[in-house]
Amino acid sequence: MNTSLTRREFLRISGGTASAGLVYLLLKPKSASANIKPPGALPEPDFSALCLRCGKCTSACEQLAIQIDRQGFPYIDGLSGWCDFSGDCVAACPSGALEPFEIETVKIALAVIDRDRCIAWNSTGCRWCYQECLDIQDAIWIEPDGVFLRPHIDETRCNGCGACVNICPRAAEVGGDMSKGKAVSLHQIV
After folding, report:
1. What is the DSSP track for the chain?
2. Does residue 91 register a pLDDT over 90?
3. How far is CA 43 from CA 19, 38, 104, 112, 184, in A?
4. Is pLDDT of 104 > 70?
5. 115 pLDDT exceeds 50?
6. Which of 42, 82, 94, 142 could be cross-linked to 162 through a Cys-Cys bond (beta carbons 3.0 to 4.6 Å apart)?
């Protein structure tokens, strides 16, 4: 049996594979919080102009909160880790795109609960986001409503750390299939 490929077969297979990869990259769900910059980020367009896209802030983040977007810029979405506001990313930034900040007052985002996806809003038993936030920022409170214990975000206390997103038992990336997405996501502060 001859197992060698003709040039035409090879090009057809490799072209199909490359096309499938390109389609995936173009249609892949984008994080709803891809614009959430690390703490201390300069306002746009200064941040984009100064950021070297070197990834040093990502390497310095022990909580694994900082990810890199398609253009090479850092962002935080809470899916892989949460921001502890240690300032290690600022110390690692060689360009000044990230500046020192006041940990007591810094806000990078606002957590938003999707009540349609949230287990606590649709059945009983989940308080994970509340428990996680209780010791960190105390920005989530629980409202008893019959048998439900429904979580709410205190917008004045939430700093956008993403711990609630990270702990949420709903699986999958934000922006994906609605039935599989996280019930909490980070949103830009307007």
Report:
1. ---PPPHHHHHHHHHHHHHHHHHHHHHSPPPTTTT-PPTTBPPTTHHHHH-----HHHHH-TT--EEE-TTS-EEE-SSS------SHHHHH-SSSSB----TTT----EEEE-TTT-HHHHSS---HHHHHHHHHT--EEEEEETTEEEEEE-TTT-----HHHHH-S--S-TTS-TTTS-SEEEE---
2. yes
3. 37, 11, 19, 22, 25
4. yes
5. yes
6. 82
**Model confidence band, residue 174 (pLDDT cutoffs 50, 70, 90):** very low
> Which tokens go with 71?
């253009």
Instruction: Report which of residues 79 and 175 the model is more confident about.
Output: 79
Q: Which residue has the tokens 């994906």?
A: 176
- The residue behind tokens 């308080």 is 127
Query: What count of other Cβ atoms lies within 10 Å of the Cβ of residue 165?
Result: 30
Which one-letter amino acid corresponds to residue 159?
N
- What residue segments make up the domains of the chain, in order of their start? 30-187
CA angle 165, 92, 82 (to 5 degrees): 10
pLDDT digits (tens, 9 = 90+) for 122-133: 888 799 999 999
Please, are residues 78 and 65 in contact by the beta-carbon 8 Å criterion? yes
